[in-house]
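Subject: Sanity check before I submit

Could someone independently write out the C-alpha cells for this chain? I want to compare against mine line by line before I put it in a report. The sequence has 159 residues.
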Amino acid sequence: MDQNRIEQYPEPKDEKPLFVNEPWLIDASMFKYWEWKCEPDAEEDNVRVYLPLDLNRKAILRRLKTIINHYEWSTEENEFDFSADVDMLIEQIRIYDQFWTGRTNVENGKHSEKAVSLVKEFIKGLENIPDGCAELFPWETIDKLKKEFGIEIEDGYCE
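---
Independent answer below. Compare away.
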C-alpha cells in the first residue's frame, strides 16, 4: 500500500498558507444535503484532513475548463449540478480576491485587480458554454459576477 505524505505540523514550515475553514469547497457532497458546517463531524471515527488547495488564475481557469468539459452542455437536467460546481470555483475566486485585496491594500469595498481580471476571463469561459436549453445557468451566474465585481454590462445580460 502506498503511503500518503502526512505533514507533522498543521502548517508547513517553509511557507505560510492561508487557512480557510470551508470544507464544502472540497467536498461537493455537502451541496447535496446543504450541510453548511465548518465544524468537524461528530462521528467517533472522524478524522479531519486539511488538503492544500492552490488558488491562482491558471488553476481556477483549469478547474472551470474541467467542469465545462465534464457537463459539455448547459441543460435543464444538469444545470443545478453544473451551477453548484461552478459556484465552488466562484467561492475560490472570492478567497483569492480577499487575499489580494489585503495584500495590495485595496480600498475597502473594492476588488483586487487580479480578481477582476480573473473574473473577466472566467465569464468568457461561462459565455462559451454550449446552450442546451437550461433556464438559468450560466446566464444568471454571469450577471451576478458582473454586478459583484463591477464589470461593465454588455449584450443586455443584466437587468
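---
OP: Matches mine. For the report I'm noting this point. Residues 23-148 form one domain.
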